Amino acid sequence: MSRVYGEFGEWLIHAVGSKKAALKVNHYLSFFLDIEKTWQKVPSYSQLLNHFEAEGLRRVRLPMRWLHEAKGIKPNAQAKRLHSDKRRIRECLASLPPSSQADKTLHSYWVQLESRIKSGKTSYTSARLALRAAATLLRHTDPAGQRLPAQCDVESYLDAVPGQAATLTGFTNFLNRQLGTTLKPMVNAPKASKQRKEKLARSLMKMAKQPEKNEAWQWEWLVLGLEYFHERKISKKAIRQQEIEIKDDGIWVTLEGMRYWLPCSRDSCRQDDYSPQSYVEDVRD
Length: 285
Hints:
- 65% of the residues lie in helices and 6% in strands.
- The chain has helices spanning 2-16, 18-24, 29-38, 45-58, 61-71, 77-93, 101-118, 124-141, 151-160, 165-179, 189-209, 215-230, 236-239, 276-284; strands at residues 243-247, 250-255, 258-262.
- It has a 3-stranded antiparallel β-sheet, with helices on one face.
- A hairpin with a 2-residue loop joins strand 1 and strand 2.
- Residues 268-285 have low confidence and may be disordered.
């Protein structure tokens, strides 16, 4: 590894200049010493990731760049995602009061999820999301972790985050099997729709007050506006593929053969007395 470290030093001179290299090279010595102690040779990217963690590798960007260019140690996005999922799972499992009823229940649920991972029925990412939803529900039910969720707790939790209903289904099914309960991740659709409408209104009004309205602002305005005024959801990527026409009275968007009108900012429309903020307020009221 002393030879490898010397090769890195030569590369560093050419990469950042001799003066900067002289200041930096000793900073990376501990990284190479750790490699020497652990493997006695240049390891694979997965080995480096597991040993140093993603944050540790971010601190040694230049050595990692050299390992890529000189030794073919190419960063693996899939391995990085897997490592990140495992780290977040560990953090989630440690997020409840130790030895509490909720903590024991969450670990039991993880045993089931881990079994599904090993059998190929689910991925680490899906398991992480399911575990996080379970942990959040347990904390919502009782921060001390001594009480497990009842139906009212599930409904209260989903009132705040209705989009978590599907992710939470696995955990409620698990509790039903373990405890003989009949929990259902039910969403109050009218209430969720009202809350979403109010959130969209707040976002649009905040955007209308912004003094600078750049291109990113314009696309965001179209995406939120279509959902708020016309209940049409569309991604930022998809909206860029649609026919958009700006006129004096606002913006016309053609979507799947239908034309939708949206208010626009003064920067985009030529009517000086037009106020998108007041229009949002009128519709909201």
